[in-house]
Amino acid sequence: MTNSAVAPVHAEVADELLPALCAADSASCREAYRATLLALAALDERIVCLEADLGGQSNSFQRQYPDRYFNFGLAEANMVSAASGLAATGLVPFVHTMANFVTARACEQVKLDIAYHRANVKIVASYGGIAGASFGPTHHATEDLAILRALPGMAVVNPADAVETVEALLAAAVADGPWYVRLGRDPTPIVHKRPAGFHLGTAGVLRTGTDVTFVASGQSPVPMAVEAAAFLAGEGISAGVLNMSTLKPLDAVAVTDALRVTGAVVTIEEHNIIGGLGSAVAEVIAEHGYGRLVRLGVRDTFVDQGGTYTALLTRYGVSVDALVAAARTLLSQNPTAEVKP
Amino acid sequence: MRPAPVRSVAVSDLELPQPDTLEEIARRVRQHVVRIGGTPHGCHLGGALSCVEILVTLYFDVLRVDPADPQWTQRDVFVFSKGHAAAALYSVLVERGFLPAESLATYCGMGSALLGHPTRRIPGVEFATGSMGHGLSLGVGVALGLKRASQPERRVFVLLGDGELQEGSVWEAAMAAHHYRLDNLCAVVDRNLGQNDGPTEGIMALGDVLPRWRAFGWSARTADGHDIGELRAALTPVPYAVGSPSVLVAKTVKGRGVSAIEGDPRSHYMTLSAANVQRALRGLRPGGSP
Fold it and tell me: Can you state the percent helix, strand and coil of chain B, rounding each to 5?
């Protein structure tokens, strides 16, 4: 297994960063990344920080570790391949840029020089999904998870909040192999009031339910699922919530366990419904043999309307209301066609 | 440090068997390449034959590598960016002792590690290549890492095709190598003037590539890419200037050594008939002229 942990997680970094984040209402995962990498760099000299003109003009890592900070300029393809070269010398490069640039522009470099070489490179992408909002489709990534999920050996992680972001990065730092960690931009709600207990390939059970299961991934969908489940409880509908923060390797057992109880799943993701979480869960359901599914997400379109981030999520079908409606629809359907052993 | 094999011979040793000259090794490498070109799969023959002397000079006279220990921690790093010319690389790896000679017969066969483009399953192959425009960036990363590890004695060599220079990422890497003052990095361009669809100057003109590299801040030289003496003289003094990356533009001929295809851009990818293999091998006999 490529992505096996080789050293204990840096508990001191978790102790340093998690209490404040757990206590917060919201936090930026991008800022959590920068704080985590800075703390990790003090403990692990192999860690180097790579940017492509998106590190900011007062980058704390650059200030503290100028000889371990490499700004490659507007040349993402070169940065990704060079990261593989750096990894070949025993360093652990953390590569950051926007999700669109690293997964679409530099896709072939990620495929061949990172995934195929099983390079020990951690790609941390901000502006995942439509976090870029009114910047438009040039700064959105609603296909990145589909692309990365199809690359052999690549760990694909989409944390639910800043707490889980810190934990996922700590796990990435001690794992041997390529990771893709997808972050947003602005602060998003903190779902985990206690440490998430992140473990690659294991879904987090945020709420158990008996009528329907929300399988959510990402920093907006997961808090939406939690809120929708709480709302539905008031209507007498019991909805469970699975935080599928690892897209690959997917926790298929968590999905089938949920299906045995509820038989019905709603997936929600900040991504095209093609190729991401909804598709991954559909694959599990199809091979499992039964279960009903509604996929929520961007419905195969480019998001080129102005508006705030949250307003655009709602407009394009990623919302609490959409979850509630999907749950009601699933539960109102006649399940007689269902084959449930 | 493990030196490259010493080929100079003292007068008192003259009665002992003479080590092969690099020209002789290059001749055998061409024989291997021609035989690979005769397999059902064929190979990128023209560009393999054009880089034979470059590879032989690198592997026998320049690179500090150890076939008995391909992961030797003090080795130089070679990136074969023009991965399509794999037949030449495999043949040189056989001559240098990284691969057994019989492995060439497995080329592209079921389960073989010797694919049409090199994989890291092959001893001595540091990076899998074949998609153009990746190798120099990989080399930039290794050179940066070696600088950071304070291993100044280890150098990084990257062999590029000339058609490959049309890939934009090559120039991204060229910029970065200059920016980070990677004088432990040396690119060699196999300037054979041909690419898949025909002559480079007709497909997408590269012109005089030397000033382009110099404009990107590299120290640049040229050499006859088939003259081992010239290649040795050009590759030994790397870096050409302290604080800047080096590039050697080696002027070569596509298909060199097989008269029927020499200089013919159509030799880019070929499968040779059995008769043509025999004809080419006759031209590559010891003492024979190409």
Answer: 40, 10, 45
Which H or E element spans position A179? strand A179-182
- CB-CB: which of B127, B128, B134 is closest to A109? B134
The helix/strand/coil state of A237 is: coil
Could you give the CA distance from residue A196 to residue A205 in angstroms, rounded to a whole number? Answer: 10
B271 CB burial (10 A radius; 0-12, 13-18, 19+): middle
| Residue A240 parent element (H or E) | strand A239-243
How does strand A239-243 pair with strand A204-207?
antiparallel
Model pLDDT for residues B104-133, shown as the tens digit of each residue = 999 999 999 999 999 999 999 999 999 999
Q: How many helices (H) and strands (E) does chain B have?
A: 10, 7
Rounded to two decimals, the pTM is: 0.94
* C-alpha–C-alpha distance, residues B136 and A109, integer Å: 12
- Rounded to whole angstroms, the Cα distance separating A168 from A9 reads 10
- For residues B157-181, give the mean pLDDT: 98
Of B140, B172, B179, nearest to A85 by CB-CB distance is B140
Contact predicate B83/B8, CB 8 Å: no
| Interface touch B145/A85, C-beta < 8 Å | yes
3-state secondary structure of A157: strand
**Are A109 and B169 within 8 A, CB to CB?**
yes
Q: pLDDT-based confidence at B12, cuts 50/70/90? A: low
The string of pLDDT tens digits covering residues A221-264 is 999 999 999 999 999 999 999 999 999 999 999 999 999 999 99
Q: Do A89 and B127 touch (CB under 8 A)?
A: no
DSSP 8-state secondary structure symbol assigned to residue B84: G
**Test mutation, A46, A48, A67, A78, chain B, max B CBs within 10 A:** A78
Give me the interface pTM, i.e. the ipTM.
0.92
* Least CB–CB distance from B141: residue in A67, A82, A116: A82
**Residues of B in Cβ contact (< 8 Å) with A89:** 141-142, 145-146, 148-149
Question: How long a stretch of residues is chain A?
Answer: 341
